[in-house]
Amino acid sequence: MTRFLTICLLCSLFLVNAQTISNKEPSNKFRSIEFKSNYGSYLYTGTALSEAGFLDAGYGAINVKIGWQSSNPESWAGYYKYPTYGIGLYSGFLGNAEVFGNPSALYAFMDFPIGNPNRRNKFSIEPALGITYNLQEYNAEENPINDAFGARAAVYFGLDIGFEYRFTRELDLTYGVDFTHFSNGSSYQPNLGLNLFGINLGVKYNYNAAQRFVDNDPYTKNLLQARFKSPEKTKPTKINENSISIYLAGGGKQTDEDGGTDRQFGVFSGVLDYEHRFNAIHGITGGFDFFYDNSFQEFDKAADRTSIGIHAGYDFHFWKMVIKAQLGTYITDDLGKGAFFMRPALRYNITEILFAQFGLKTLDGGAADYIEFGVGFKPFKW
């Protein structure tokens, strides 16, 4: 039933999108619908599921995506060769449904062309981020072997690297390799998560949603172009902007001992950052981190549950979003979390000063420490 409702939602969005085009000013509205099948194997860091044979058969999945083609040469899209963005539905088949469930995901994606986007065989990289649901979580009595999922929902992350071969005026054959990750960021334990790596094959239908307002005769020869022909890439504007940002975030996590329960401990991150933006795309950061982890209940004093770190990072800017990748180390006691930490994050700039951010703070080696949600502001800019 959940999958049926999600499919209905996608269809509704498609129909609403088709109805929003004005009769008064018909213009090109490039859209696409893609159906893709995936198959591959697991990259699993544990041993229990492998030894039990639950991962031997690999996995399968189906993706359905609706895409909007950016085309405004005066917008941010020209810096990135006019990417396609949209929403997708993932339905996976991981083998034993009693252990893993029947994972589905609803996600947003952005497809960035690499090289010449007008080639017959176009190469692109497509990251995706969303929510996975319908997982079967760990239970000490009913599902004790599942150390991958501690909750029925998780973060969905996907990365597709592949090609689109222009087969006809409207149809593309799509193929490539992909990586998919399910994890709840240690919000609930156990949380080894699952990494899926495989190949994909699909078909993509390109169309111009404005056609019905120009000539809706099924036999007409008065056709609008079905797909966008990309102009030259816009040269990134030099900015050379400096700013100081303050970011405050919180979240919740479980310890291994609390796996299978609803008990969580609060965590807090405070970040003071210097940010330098070279141009419309690239930037770097460096700053200080303050961490508070209330899961260290063995310490009576709250001050003993804190640590301070420093970090450096890279920022990739597009539209109002920033993909952040930071690597840091501790300058005080690391509380047994290891010498280094990483923070991959996604920022949304609400205004030129205020922003919201969602990220993952990791342990040494890349395992999840906790997911953080927060807001920040830039009090100084020059």
From TrEMBL:
Signal sequence bounds: 1-18
Classification via InterPro entries: Lipid-A_deacylase-rel (IPR018550)
Keyword annotations: Hydrolase, Signal
One example GO MF annotation: hydrolase activity
Source organism, top-level taxon: Bacteria
Keyword Metal-binding assigned: no
Official protein name in the record: Acyloxyacyl hydrolase
